[in-house]
Amino acid sequence: MNKTQKALNMIGLAQRAGKLISGDERVEKAIKNGQAKIIICADDISEKTLSRYQNYSENYNTPMLLPFDSIEMSQALGKKRSICCITDHGITKKFLSYFAESEGKL
């Protein structure tokens, strides 16, 4: 199983554990409330939405990744989604480890 598939499985697991918030308005609220530990956006979201979430990422000091397209994300979550956030430190750390290993970081 490749790193991308493991990361997709991790967001599915986070959702089942109740540690993932998805959907534009709910993610925005979680970021503003300080619940979001990482923002995960599909790489094919609109420029306007991307810009808005980049601003949230910077203003609320929340890391953001665009590792999947909306089809992959939707399949992992079982519903049509292009943005979500993880609210648990441990799950976030494990999720990030899949990308750090592939890039030789951490």
Question: How are the SSEs ordered, and which strands pair?
Answer:
Layout: H1 3-16, E1 20-22, H2 24-32, E2 38-42, H3 47-59, E3 64-68, H4 70-77, E4 83-86, H5 89-103
Parallel strand pairs: 2-3
Antiparallel strand pairs: 1-4, 2-4
Helix pairs in contact: 1-4, 1-5
Helix-strand string? HEHEHEHEH
Average of per-residue pLDDT values: 93
Largest beta-sheet details: 4 strands, mixed
The helix count comes to: 5
Strand order of the largest sheet: 1-4-2-3
Number of strands: 4
The assigned structural class equals: alpha+beta
Give the termini distance in whole angstroms. Answer: 21 Å
Low-confidence stretches: none
CA-based gyration radius: 13 Å
Dominant shape: globular
Indicate the proportion of strand residues.
Answer: 15-25%
Share of helical residues: 55-70%
Overview in brief:
The chain is of the alpha+beta class and 106 residues long. The protein contains five helices and four strands, in the order H-E-H-E-H-E-H-E-H. 56% of the residues lie in helices and 16% in strands.
Characterise the protein shown here.
By secondary structure, this protein is α+β, with helices and mostly antiparallel strands. It is built from five helices and four strands. It has a four-stranded mixed β-sheet, sandwiched between helices. It is globular, with a radius of gyration of 13 Å. The model has no long low-confidence stretch (mean pLDDT 93).
